[in-house]
Design a protein that fits this description.
FN3_sf, single chain, Immunoglobulin-like, mainly beta, Fibronectin type-III domain-containing protein, 4-stranded antiparallel beta sheet, 0% helix, elongated, 8 strands
Length: 126
């Protein structure tokens, strides 16, 4: 029987592109299982890229892009507010293997308009 043990890291993104923080105090690791779960969270943006107000009810969801730094292509995870009963401020992303990973988050509204991605944050999983 294979036991899955996940590596969790709390990641804070600010979708208004300011002040990212990383807290790596909450983690466990198994050398026998390459699957890791990175938990990221962010503050709900209050403004659009053009400075206009963005209200919570206008947010359709978020898109997380991530990749292992040795990979050229990104993978994407889309989170729709309707699937989560409303407000979303965190997600878990499963990654395989050790290495350095990069994560960024964008918000999109009901009209399909996307923000720029947040500044990318990196984390190294040993």
């Amino acid at each position: 029987m294979k036991v899955a043990i996940c590596f969790s890291i709390i990641f804070f993104f600010s979708l208004v592109l300011s002040g990212c923080q990383l807290d790596a105090s909450d983690h466990s690791l198994s050398a026998t299982d390459p699957v890791r779960v990175v938990r990221i969270s962010w503050d709900t943006p209050e403004n659009r890229e053009n400075g206009e107000s963005l209200y919570v009810y206008e947010i359709e969801g978020y898109e997380i892009k991530y990749r292992k730094m040795t990979d050229q292509n990104y993978q994407y995870q889309t989170l729709r507010a309707s699937d989560y009963g409303g407000l979303i401020e965190e997600a878990e992303v499963s990654v395989a293997g050790r290495g350095t990973y990069e994560f960024a988050v964008a918000v999109f509204d009901a009209d399909g308009l996307y923000s720029l991605y947040s500044d990318a944050m990196t984390v190294t999983l040993d």
